[in-house]
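Tutorial, part two.
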Amino acid sequence: MSSKFPDHFLWGGAVAANQVEGAYQTDGKGLSTSDLQPQGIFGAITPRVDGDSGIKDVAIDFYHRYPQDIALFAEMGFKCLRTSIAWTRIFPQGDEEAPNEAGLAFYDRLFDEMARYGIQPLVTLSHYEMPYGLVKQYGGWGNRKTIGFFEHYARTVFERYKHKVQHWLTFNEINMSLHAPFTGVGLAEDSSKSEIYQAIHHQLVASARAVKACHEIVPGGKIGNMLLGGILYPLSSKPEDVLETQRQNRDWLFFGDVQARGGYPAYMRRYFRENGIQVEITAEDQQALRETIDFISFSYYMSGCVTTDEAQNNTARTNILNMVPNPHLASSEWGWQIDPVGLRYLLNVLYDRYQKPLFIVENGLGAKDLVEADGSINDDYRINYLNDHLVQVAEAIDDGVEVMGYTSWGPIDLVSASKAEMSKRYGFIYVDRDDAGNGSLERRRKKSFYWYRDVIQSNGNSLKDKA
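Running the prediction step on this input gives:
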């Protein structure tokens, strides 16, 4: 296909500190909430005791092997790498006045290594983790004081890296707090809706304060939010299904509305009122929220359907987001439905709604890869998945949507977020490690490595439109 991607499109990949770095207590790093979730974001919260271990403690040892990995990303032609800063490397307990210099120095080395190859960092401030010290001492995001601790952290890293990082994100998949409160806001899973939305409110205020700080500190810096793009379709044309679909889409679009428009929408105030949800929102909070993001970033893996039929809803309550399956779509090994056209639809929905540049910062296929006898890994299923999604991104750009870039999720195999598995692989680069933590950690190029290199080199011209 002839390329519709702009000349300065940011091609690359995305990782998260807690899923790749390992070194979980190295150089003064404190315990994070992720360190207490050895089975992933939907697993039990397990206190750390001497001598125990979890797969994320080493992960893929990116902390020590990043020069090798950055060189492989450069070989593919990456223009951009999305990563996150582990908050507990900078403030081990979260409430310290002075930052941990060893943690700051690690990210200096990482960003300098990326700069050697002309790879721009896109940095998430909080990616599914926060200092456990803030949960233990203050009650996580349920406590208003956490806003100040986060702002102090954000200002610290903005000052340190203002000449190295131009693109920032505040919170990863901020709307996931509705499904995983401990992961998102440091609250117990059985917290009330009022408690969860109060914590989310504190996080939204903190995000706005970070946006203001970025605009003040980072010359020419741009900062966005990050949504889990869980777009939903009505299962039928029944008006009740259509209305319920709108309501459920607003559950997650609400986070974008506040961050991009600068205040709470009327539909959310009605939802709070009718469900007895009490959220303290001060005049100072309302003023802070007016500082809006520069661009919208989001993940996209699958779409889902909505119905008012309770029998069908009950069957759906076993999957990750309680989505009703779409009868017209196939599914991955993990039951995630594959819907490339949904990405084009979502891009148009978000651009119509916000009229701000969009950045696809996660998209990919988790699958079990087979290493052949000759050492090759023929992951054509991954190539087909990514090709079909990128063709739809090109179509959205042709629709008039302003898309800044695309960073595929997990360009190198990493520990999956949902269940902390290595066997659920996303990468163009294979890492020799299994779910039990065995393996040499050797890196190996998959077939998709060369395919993605060609896509980037051709600026999308090598994509195959199957229409």
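The mean pLDDT is 95. In part three we will examine how such features are distributed along the chain.
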